[in-house]
User: What shape does this take?
Amino acid sequence: SLTISTGAVLAAASGTLDQGTILVNSNNGLEIADGVSVGGSVFTNVTGEFEDVLTGNGTISGPVTRQSGNYIAGISGSGSLTLSNTQNISGATTAAVDRGNVILASLGNLLGSTATFTVGSPTAIGNVSFTARDNSTLGVNNIVIGAAGAQSTIGFTVRDNASVSTSAAGTVNLFAGAGTNAAGVVTVNLLGGTLTTGGFTKSSIGANQGVNINWNGGTIAASQANAAFLPALTGVNVSIGTLGAKFNGNGNNVTLAANMTGVAGDGGFAKSGTGTGTTTLTGNLTYTGATSVG
Assistant: This one.
């Protein structure tokens, strides 16, 4: 085992930390370099931030347990950080991707029933993105995208068979910038998998705070009844792709008031789910594909 009490772990480029246990007691967290793979178990006891920070591409394929404080993952430069094992953040109140491109892949999961998961940072400027792909799972209390800051673009993608969920009454806040001057564009890509939530909100409605939802083969599922599940939020554009928009009401009465457009040859809107709940569409619907109930 390896215990870090001060400073940070910096594995050499293309190195490996594949066995044993890494115990991090330093607020500087775990820091790895380009091409590094961390396959050993990581435990962190610090009350401050825990950061998976690297320049280039890196993988943490071993399990990580966050026992207290905040969980923060990010990339200092270009490249991506891939998390492909359990990220247990049950001890954290906040989990965040604050810079760069972070991917939850394979059978990886990021679980914290009381945590708010944010994509963005109050200080970072540039592109920030999070992708849940393959058969990965993200399960948290609430999701906040475009967290206070001045990023140029923020991406949030669900694809393949990934499962992303908030608590039953939790929400997805599509843009939560700091005031009307925090300009940026949020893009939500629903390319597969399922996003389950109690509803959508947008706390920042400035003229330069836009959100584009590309609904193309992914499923949005309702975890509770909500007459304002997807309201007509200022600056939010919903576009249906060729693979269609899939919605599961899970037997709840929900209303989608957002306007929905479609690309050429869009796949339409398909509602599924058991029970007697009613899904009501009240927005301006200009997609050309079928509207179906299965």
In short: The radius of gyration is 19 Å. Residues 1-7 have pLDDT under 50 and may be disordered.
